[in-house]
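Task: complex structure prediction.
Instruction: return structure tokens for all chains below.
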Amino acid sequence: MKNSLEITNLNKIYDGGHTALSDVNLQVRSGEIFCLLGANGAGKTTLINSVCGIVQPTSGTISVCGHDAWSDYRSARSKLSLVPQEIMLDPFITVLETIRLARGYFGKKTDHDLEEKVLKSVGLWEKKDSKTAQLSGGMKRRVLIAKALMNEPELLFLDEPTAGVDVELRRSMWDMVKQLKSDGTTVFLTTHYLEEAERYADRIGYIANGVLHFVKKKEELMAEYPGKSLEDIYVELTKKY
Amino acid sequence: MNYIGLLTIYKREMNRTLRIMSQTILAPVISTSLYFVVFGAALGTTISHIEGVSYGAYIVPGLIMLALTTNALSAASSGIFFPKWAGTIYEMLSAPLSYLEICLGFVLAAATRAVIIAIIIMFVSLAFVNITIAHPLFSIGFALLVTLSFALFGFVLGLWSKSFDQLALIPNFIITPMSFLGGIFYSIDILPPFWQTVSLFNPFVYMINGLRYGFYGISDVSPLLCLTVVAAFATINTLIILWIFKTGYRLRP
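Output:
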């Protein structure tokens, strides 16, 4: 099976000496929903940011859809999009301007049909001319998702995408993720909502203190802990590692 | 080259300039115009000609240089600082954009803003004084070189700054005093010998006199030296930017 993401011997040590990632090796298969679990500060966001070009790895290699993420960064980054954990938006521009800029940075021409399709898919078409500062927290998170979709990515990173959002948005977001998967998009996900991971992930990885301890098929992991939910399993993992 | 990406950054910055036009264009035009009214039209009538140029006309190149440098600096520094501060810089870093494209987008937009302001100030000055430009090509080339240098410097400043205080530190306490002491309103020849020597260490003396030479063919220092100093300043900023590109300083931890 083809891999959308291949990470080999990845290390990240920040200037202060903190080791955020330690010899991480990981393959994410094309078309799957991969969920990375771990406590706050375990290294999930550093791993994602290393792939997306936001953090410089100390050593190791990253390949996105066959392109090295650093030596061939243009090809690699054109294949991926990121929905960050924090809500980071320019408060002075409109929703439409925000997603248009996002597509422009990727070197792609304005596509009005895509703008309408994406904004309708996240329920923001009616708010397209509103400044992002005027939106609720949930709506701002939808804008982040819309921005990521404007690149039409092959590999989509969702870093805790449902943190602090209501049930309705969470459901519509998961419907969208399922649709993306059926369209062939690979989804790399981190979340603290373990019931969502249990429901939607194909494979699960567990990271603690920068060390990726395992990657398993969800069914294999669940079979190792009969009768337990993923939340119960997660609690056991935090004690073990 | 990601031309669409570069143009997107440029347009984003120009839209920001237009969105807050009262702050970005109107305010500097009005404040500089006040110098014409006070020093040119009012006080200027009591001051004799300097090297055959009326005082009102004499201060025009210096005021244009002041507008170009301060506005290029502030536009580029705030341009890169704001996405860094708001966290939206991740959009550019995770896109297929090179450091050069990111830098050019901000620097060219900052230079454009500064040139627009300078052109307006030039036209405003025509309402008060008569100006004939002796060396138009030299003036344009020299002014553009200074503007781009300060936009590069602003980009470095915006990257270096961790807070709004730091962002304002160098413009308020170094650039503005140096520009005013660089001979906008006077020829350094009127200073006592000691202060004349001190002034020669101020790069603004060369920037202002370079443009004054372009306008009227007069200068306190050699035009070639002016060009050399500005080229050196541009080279230093370019080298710093290249180092930033190599290391990812304050862009990619």
